[in-house]
């Protein structure tokens, strides 16, 4: 640590003050970063709220000149109101937003940007991507493709599988596209592919359907770990031992625990981590606290989660 | 700041220790991040060294559990040796590397990765991109395209220009491609386009050549701010007032000072900032200090640097 290099900038002064134990209050902080996210309405967004609050505490401790404000909203309309409140009561240097919907949030975010606020968009893009300074998103094509590559290898390039789709969205389309493009290069047959809306109960019902229709199913891809839980319940209830692999995606805590435990039927997952909100918050903080250039696009990889690396994706205190 | 959320992890303990003023020594630090970069052999790499050292001090102050080691090398061979030394004397959690050359560094970096070290590659890719966990680079096509769009607008879509190329590399090819694709959509004529190897003296000589050959030149694009300085000298020496715009790229300090001063001939630049090493270091630190997922690709935008935003790209203490 070269403290002699510090001392010339406001940042340095703040860091030194922090190191000397001076408590920084919101009033002392030079930069304000607002974080607007959906409330914890289901598993994945529950994870987003958890990680945003963790990152808020960590970033404020690390950078005494940065104040982070996390705001949750339970609908697109509520998020629009929250943005108005945040802008009215604070001078925002940056806004990190995971928009409820692209359509309803684009104009309100544009209004915030017009004040000179740095805009970081996470996961779901706005309708006009020229508004954002930084875009952080997962790679849904890789979620599907990496899972498919693993499955092709395990099944020796042949067999019969069924697939469950989520809610009809670009995210679902991309996952299915990445998966099917790889499967089509093999001799694996997709027996059936239907929507279950990323819903555990609907996935349970759909899987019961599949099990009734097909006497042999070598593997199931549920495209999402919430749906995987419903699939596993249906398979177990039917006592079907032909199902060698049942895979999901997203890196849900319960599923990572299976991976860590060396589960034979569910030995992998792929991350589409709600902690990407923390990636976006850290990058935005570095733009201000460190003057590190952060305008651009960050696309997260979707490496397979295996017993070897599962601890990196495991947050025992997170709801997801 | 919600300190009640902390206290369960090593990170939190370290943060609390930091806030209480306990000085952390390298021995206390949980994570070691090595940064391997070219020595300050010319302007841009001088900037890389400056920003790496600044970010080292800032990151160590922000994250008491992270130790950063910056190592410079004056050749590809020296960088390979430096990697061996770094690996032999430290257990590296991460390596941030701006490789001298792709060919010579790929195998040595692969060896480091095989130990489980997280690999962040900056700017110049390795020959095998499956080795890296995180890739951080500028967008050279955007450097050319954004400059061309501005120029087309200023010239009203017509006129005669000359272009200087750098060293024959992918970087130069991409800048020229981005630029010419936009110019071809207009009625602007590129009178001449020759290499001057990103060298100020060669650019001076080439520009003298252009000025002798062409009685009217509305604008010059030098593709790089080092070359721009040579161009400006040649134009001034010839007293040529037909040259309305002389533009470079990279965001060199002297050129940003022109932009800030409202220079009429050089009112903009585009960033290809050496501070991208700091972006890569902050992102890598967040992977460890914050458990924020940082595997993926970050492509920096190349927004125009104008008088309105020039301060964000200006580092008065940097050599570049």
UniProtKB/TrEMBL annotation, chains A, B:
SUPFAM superfamilies: Periplasmic binding protein-like I (SSF53822). It holds the Pfam family Peripla_BP_4. This is Monosaccharide ABC transporter substrate-binding protein, CUT2 family. One of its GO terms (cellular component) is cell envelope. PANTHER family: D-ALLOSE-BINDING PERIPLASMIC PROTEIN-RELATED. GO terms for molecular function: carbohydrate binding. Residues 1-26 form the signal peptide. It comes from the Bacteria. Keywords: Signal. InterPro entries: Peripla_BP_I, SBP_2_dom. The keyword Signal applies. Residues 33-291 form the Periplasmic binding protein domain. It comes from Wenxinia marina DSM 24838.
